[in-house]
């Protein structure tokens, strides 16, 4: 992770096609650890990070996400790893906390040559009875609320160029 930080931010792109090769455990561990250093409201560390590499659960979470969308495509674009970020729903900053965790992991993954894309619908999944059943199966509290997920793996194609930044994105007062 020797890349210049601002360069990382400017060059990270969402990846929507992945190679099937597994992510080395050392790289996955580094990405996950980066998530644990995200800022959280009051330092409460409300998020829980769930790394899914087991094909059974990878398929199940993809099915549940696609069900929310009303289709049967893979919302995680064939990535070998899906990282869910859930958080304690009683924390008033659970969405913000989880969002910071997701961004940290996306930047760390990019620094390691991995691709990611932020995927939504985890809130609907884990607010549902099917999602609650998964939480029970994983021995996690049912009070966890979905914030988002990232698909993680090696990109199957080159990333595109960033869109031009909009005018008036920044206002100085």
UniProtKB/TrEMBL annotation:
Keywords (A to Z) from UniProt: Oxidoreductase
| Pfam entry (one) | Nitroreductase
GO MF entries: oxidoreductase activity
Q: Which residues form the Nitroreductase domain?
A: 9-154
Source species, domain of life:
Bacteria
Q: Which PANTHER family match?
A: NAD(P)H NITROREDUCTASE YDGI-RELATED, NADH DEHYDROGENASE_NAD(P)H NITROREDUCTASE XCC3605-RELATED
* Family indicated by similarity: Belongs to the nitroreductase family.
Q: Would you tell me the protein name for this molecule?
A: Diguanylate cyclase
Q: What is the lineage of its organism?
A: Bacteria, Bacillati, Bacillota, Clostridia, Lachnospirales
């Amino acid at each position: 992770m020797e890349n210049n930080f601002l360069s990382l931010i400017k060059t990270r792109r969402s990846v929507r096609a992945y190679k099937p090769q597994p992510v080395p455990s050392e790289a996955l561990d580094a990405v996950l650890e980066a998530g644990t250093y995200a800022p959280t409201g009051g330092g409460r560390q409300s998020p829980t990070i769930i790394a899914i590499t087991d094909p059974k659960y990878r398929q199940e979470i993809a099915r549940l996400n696609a069900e929310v969308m009303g289709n049967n495509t893979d919302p995680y674009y064939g990535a070998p790893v899906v990282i869910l970020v859930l958080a304690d729903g009683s924390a008033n900053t659970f969405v913000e906390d989880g969002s910071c965790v997701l961004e940290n992991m996306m930047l760390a993954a990019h620094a390691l040559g991995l691709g990611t894309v932020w995927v939504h619908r985890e809130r609907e999944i884990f607010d549902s009875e099917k999602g609650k059943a998964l939480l029970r199966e994983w021995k996690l509290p049912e009070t966890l609320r979905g914030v988002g997920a990232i698909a993680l793996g090696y990109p199957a194609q080159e990333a595109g160029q960033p869109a031009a930044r909009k005018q008036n994105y920044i206002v100085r007062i």
